[in-house]
Design a protein that fits this description.
The chain contains 9 helices and no strands. It has about 180 residues and is mainly α. The protein has a single domain, classed as Tetracycline Repressor, domain 2, CATH 1.10.357.10. Helix 7 packs across helix 8 and helix 8 runs antiparallel to helix 9. The longest helix is centred in the middle third of the chain and has 27 residues. The radius of gyration is 18 Å and the shape is elongated.
Length: about 180
């Protein structure tokens, strides 16, 4: 489903197309997922859980502010470089959610879960003395996710975007948010 959405969007990602790509029958997909929307939700849930685990582990292991910042930006860069299907899925689900309360609710719950999880990690890093938040941890996480998502969409739609300059600016904003000087 992820590959199909990246190639032809949600509308073009029929059970027939996805089943053919996966090498399974359409009936099998229908039996396990019922609807295309349910399949989309399950794929994005699984992908998001993997990202939460990977980024969460890296953040928990971070011992310096630069390691915390590096964890976020390496995740964003890896996603753009190796997992563009995920970016397309999130973007497509956001748009599709305008017409499907189920999709909107599910995507909102995923973002909420990630914000809560990572905000707690940032609070722990603050307690450890690794960093000092300028604002509420969930607000900082929400901003960082927004910047990462927005940057990914801009890069996908405009490959001429200077990612080095954009990343340099984003790192300095992250440094500001995560390193309040007393």
């Amino acid at each position: 489903m992820r590959e199909s959405v990246a190639e032809v969007g949600i509308a073009g990602s029929t059970f027939e197309r996805v089943a053919a790509k996966a090498g399974v029958s359409r009936g099998l997909l229908h039996y396990y997922f019922g609807t295309k929307e349910r399949l989309l939700v399950e794929v994005i849930k699984a992908d998001t859980e993997i990202r939460i685990e990977e980024l969460g582990g890296t953040l928990r292991a971070a011992r310096t502010l630069d390691e915390v910042i590096g964890a976020f930006f390496s995740t964003f860069q890896t996603t753009l470089r190796e997992q563009r299907g995920y970016v397309y899925m999130v973007s497509e689900l956001f748009v599709a959610g305008r017409h499907s309360p189920e999709l909107q609710r599910e995507l909102g719950e995923l973002y909420s879960r990630a914000r809560v999880e990572f905000a707690e990690i940032l609070r722990q890093k603050e307690r450890e003395g690794v960093m000092k938040l300028r604002f509420d941890a969930e607000a900082v996480i929400s901003y960082l996710f927004s910047a990462g998502d927005g940057g990914a969409i801009q890069q996908l739609t405009d490959p001429t975007l200077d990612l080095i300059a954009t990343t340099d600016a984003a790192i300095e904003v992250a440094r500001f948010l995560l390193s309040a000087d007393d």
